[in-house]
Amino acid sequence: MIEQLHCLRRALALAAALASATGIAHAQSTADYPNRPVTLVVPTAAAGGTDTIARLFADALGKAMKQPFVVDNRPGANGIIGVEYVAKGPADGYRLLFTYAASMVVNPSLYRKLPYDPLKDFAPVAQIGRGGNLLLVRKNLPVNTLKEFVAYAKAHPNELNYCSWGLGSGGHLTMESLKKQAGISLTHIPYKGSSPCVQDIMGGQVDAGFGDTATTVELVKAGRVKALAHSSSGRLPSLPDVPSMTEAGYPFKNYSWYGIFAPAKTPPAIIARLNEQVLRALQEPALAQRMRELNFPDLPLTTPQQFTQTMRQDLEDWSRLVKDTGVQLD
């Protein structure tokens, strides 16, 4: 009996020592984070708005944290492929997600069997920007305002088409909202990214579509496409003559944003360190100016907790829009 007690004490002492050592090692690994390259997964194709802004922050974080932040593009399935890859990855801060709003706050309302839960499977790190998208039409379409576009579509039922960066994407749902409000019929052509969609609007193969402001404003200024409206609450400083959809008579109040996320069980100290560096980057004059040039002048500085609240509200808002438009994906 005495020998059994001695064995139990030794086992308890060993377990305590191992727990202590593990805790110390964990604290040390957190304290010197990052001590090797970090992968920033982007669930879209290269050259689009998400990828463009992701690379800005990969560069800024790499310089600030003295380790490379390497962009890994994993497009497809409306962002699901790249988002799931991060959700099921290691929660050590070395595989992060840089994504657009729809993949986190729209997909849950669209898919009956989504392979991730944006609130349970992720730890929000930082919100990056807030804005909307431009309604673009090919340059030879004989319309110059949203009112004229609606009138033309009514006069040519089922003749116009539009593209988006995927089924259930922000561009898809925003156009479906416009269609329902205006009582018009357009054929949807889903693409795998915003860049090829915009390219085909420029080439005249597609009549219309929403495009991200980061990569399309200069195309509008150059006359390669026409912009009829913007889906955010106000006008863009770079395109002051282009009204918001709400101004033009078709209310739309759902914001888009970009964000950085980590797997849910990532140590809070790593989340806090990443958030601190993102907020510092957002306040750097050069990066803030570049974001303005990419037509993201609204740069809220949010804690992880505030970003979580934004997500919760957006999940509700987009859910209502999905129900209103009747869009449902398997």
How is the topology of this model organized?
Elements: H1 2-31, E1 38-42, H2 49-65, E2 69-73, H3 80-87, E3 95-100, H4 101-105, H5 107-110, E4 122-131, E5 133-138, H6 146-155, E6 161-164, H7 170-182, E7 187-190, H8 194-203, E8 208-212, H9 213-221, E9 225-230, E10 256-263, H10 268-282, H11 285-293, H12 304-325
Parallel strand pairs: 1-2, 1-3, 6-7, 6-8
Antiparallel strand pairs: 3-10, 4-10, 5-8, 5-9
Helix pairs in contact: 2-10, 7-12
What characteristics describe this protein?
330 residues; alpha/beta; five-stranded mixed β-sheet; 10 strands; 46% helix; 18% strand
Q: How is this structure best described in words?
A:
The chain is an alpha/beta fold. Helices cover 46% and strands 18% of the residues. The protein contains 12 helices and 10 strands. The protein has helices at 2-31, 49-65, 80-87, 101-105, 107-110, 146-155, 170-182, 194-203, 213-221, 268-282, 285-293, 304-325; strands at 38-42, 69-73, 95-100, 122-131, 133-138, 161-164, 187-190, 208-212, 225-230, 256-263. Helix 2 (49-65) packs across helix 10 and helix 7 (170-182) crosses helix 12. The relative contact order is 0.17. Mean pLDDT is 89; it is low at 21-28.
Give start-end ranges of low-pLDDT stretches: 21-28
First and last CA, distance: 63 Å
Please describe the biggest sheet, giving its number of strands, its sense, and whether it closes into a barrel: 5 strands, mixed
Give me the Rg, rounded.
Answer: 23 Å
The secondary structure category is alpha/beta
Strand order of the largest sheet: 2-1-3-10-4
Count, helices:
12
Average pLDDT, rounded to a whole number, is 89
Q: Roughly what fraction of the amino acids lie in strands?
A: 15-25%
Helix content: 40-55%
- Shape annotation: globular
Helix and strand run: HEHEHEHHEEHEHEHEHEEHHH
